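User: For a benchmark we're assembling, each entry needs the component sequences followed by a predicted structure for the full assembly. Here are entry 17's components. Please fill in the structure.
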Amino acid sequence: MNLSGSKIWSQFNRIIAFMLIIVAAYLLVPRFLSYTNIVNLVRQTFLLTLISYGMGLSMLVAGLDLSIGSVAALSSCLAATFIARENVLLGILVGLGVGGVCGLVNGMLIAKFKLPDFVMTFSMMFIARGLAMTYMQGESIYGYPKSFIWVGKSFLGPIPTPVIISALLMAVLYFFLNRTTFGRALYAVGVSKEAARFSGLSVSKKLIQIYSLSGLLAGFAGLVYIARMNSAEAEMGVLWPLEAIAVCVIGGISFSGGEGNLLGLFLGGIMMAIINNSINLLGIPARFQDFFVGFVIILAVAIDHYSKRREAGG
Amino acid sequence: MKEKLGLKITGPLMICIAVILFFSIFAENFLSASNAVNIIRQACVLALVAFGQTFVILIQGFDLSVGAVMGLTSCITALLMVKGMALPLVAVILAVMVATFCGFINGFITNYMGLNPFISTFGMWGMALGIALVITEERVIFGFPDTLRVFHDGEFLGIPLPLIIVIIIWGILQFFLKSTPYGIATYAIGGNPVAAELSGIPVRFQKTMIYTFSGLMAGLAGIMFLARSNAAQAVDTIGYEFDSIVAVVVGGTSLLGGKGGVTQTLIGVLLIASVRNGLNIMGVNSYLQLVFVGIILILAYLAESQTSTLSGNPIQNLWKKLFGTGADKG
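Assistant: Structure for entry 17:
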């Protein structure tokens, strides 16, 4: 078996699909390549990748973090209280801290008590959402100081700030995943927990770290989101886990773990952004996106599954 | 066969009794006849979805789409009736057929295309919710003939009609699971799909049928929900996927498949309904209830998986689990 050959082939498939989607969007959607729309696309891409980092990391270790949207809502609602009172730094710390703690709880129970990742993060999804809704009581918190809104709304030169933030984050994560032993260990855990343990890795420690990191990233994404919206409400991010899964599976991060990389995730983000953007520009009701995200996930995984089966079959 | 009904005095039942005791003491009027009827009426919708979910979990699957499919069913029924396009009964049948079809798609994608049930049903969740939102234009649909109310308000010999429906369905399913070859095959598939395949059970087909059945039950639950609320909204039933999974797991059906049954689920449903009702009476808002239900799910799973491995002082064990530095068990 020529392993590297088949790997290139599977990437090739993905890039061809990618090209086809762009061509289709260009032909079908008016004003698709206008300047404003491209800026829009870039921003959407980076926001989508920003919410998908945590999901991608947990999928790398053969896990899943369904709680990202709710954790983002909880942490940024709490953070917004402080930020609206001009305590920007404290607010940011609270936001990241709450996210990290939620992630830590996820990781602890998954790693130490052997709760299935699905059960734990599914429960956390409702627990965090319930706490956020109880805290907010249907209100929203808005009116932040300029220094905070800058994070979400302004431009550095021609580039929107959230794009720069997400790109920087991606660079850091890329370095961690590809240039450190921590990253190598993650892939090892994802491929086989047994093998990783026998080669002396502390698997449960890695799991706890990853879920904590995922929670932290969710808190971070929540902060960027409320800065962009200039308002925080408990209902934000309901669709995030669904969208993040879509981005990851389109980007070639496998559910079985240990496969995929950040560049793939970025590609997935671009594709998802194009799909969402085209739906908007074609005048299809925004709510139809729910349908489409679900459809895209199934399609992407099915294609992935079939191409893999073909490779395995020779 | 020690117990014919598969009923054991185990964790779930104990927790159930404890919860009822707790609320009887701390929530006023919890233990009154009218409230008991109230709980039962609330529990019936959940029981129907949870029956379908039980079968899916028995074969090591999940159905995350049930909440959205329920919403879709009630929206279709309501729209057909409001626009006068169909008689209530025809509307109900059409909508339940759509729900069943959703279940079939779930089953087909999961078993014939080999997708993780989690992805396929989560995808279906998005699709069903999207369609429901589009056809209702995100509005609440109301003002249709109240023929359907009978499914919630109706009584027969003083017993609420929804309860009678649930009991009849429970009886059929219990018989199906314990006394027919298909039921026994269901357990076999859940216990070990490969062995089941080798012993000649058409595993894929039967699994697909079970997902289809779950869609059907979600459809029926959607109709009953519509009868109760008398208005349809796409997002109203979101959350039933969570409650139904919790009810099944709390009841004692193992997420690893092949263990459990509809009777256990009935206990789980009663537990969840009592908790929600008790918290309501105590004035805990519905958001905070989500937190409680989430914690119950975690605890139920822990109780199930830890009892066998732990003995001795529970607090010491907890400490060891959390901070132990001994041999890492991965």
